[in-house]
Structures are given as structure tokens and as C-alpha cells.
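Please check these two lines:
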Amino acid sequence: MALNDDIRLLSSVPLFRELDEDQLRLVAFGAERRSLAESQELFREGSPAEAAYIVAKGQIALYSADRIGDIRHQKTVGPGTLLSELALVTMVERKFTAVAASDAEVMKINRQLFQRLLEEYPQVGRLIEARIRENIAGLAKAAAAMGHRFR
């Protein structure tokens, strides 16, 4: 895929939507492309997350284990979906297993690349902080809406 296509893909992802072209170019140039055949695993639940992935082509199925160890399909995602975004800022464990539901392609953004973006463009940190705050507020709202299930 051409660099301009990668920039266009990045600009469609909410976390990167407000970045300017130079900032997007830095990420696109430093990101790695990975092709997956249908049924190929991208990563496994519980493994260390050193990078985030953006689905560029195809579909990725997400699975997680329940309390007794049964594997459950959570959802299937497509192009423009950012997987494991917290891995961009801190070491975390994968919360699900990601498997190609069709032939797919992903863009890998490692933590070092993301930190380089923040170092070269400090104003991006403020944008990212605002986006994370929005995400946390959304999670809190969703949890509050489910409160009746836990009474």
C-alpha cells in the first residue's frame, strides 16, 4: 500500500483523526504492515502488548475466555479499527485473542514509534489525552448503564 493510503487509513482512526499530515506521515512511515491469512492469529489474550494494530483490509475476529475458560466470540471488526490502543502508552496484557476472519492486512504501530511522535510533536500529547478522557468517560457511561445487572 502506498504511503498516502496509509496516511488516509490513519486519518480515519479516531485516535489519529486530528493529527496533521506531517504527524500522520511520521506514523505511517514508521508503521509495519503485516498480512494475515484467514484463521491466522494476530495475537493471543494475556500476551504482553507492545504495539497496537489498525485493521487495513479484511476482517479480524476477537475472542476472549470467560471465567471457566470457555472461548467466546466477542465481535468481528474491519478496516479502520484500532486494536489494543493502550499498548501505545503503557505495557498491558492483551484483553482478547485476535484472529483473521478473512485474508487481512494490519498496520502495526509500536510504542516506540508512538513515543517518538509525542516527542517530536508535544501538542499531540494533548490531543491524545483528550481522546483517552473521552474513551474513559464513554466506558464509565456504559458501565453505569449496565449497573442494574450487578445488583
In short: The radius of gyration is 16 Å.
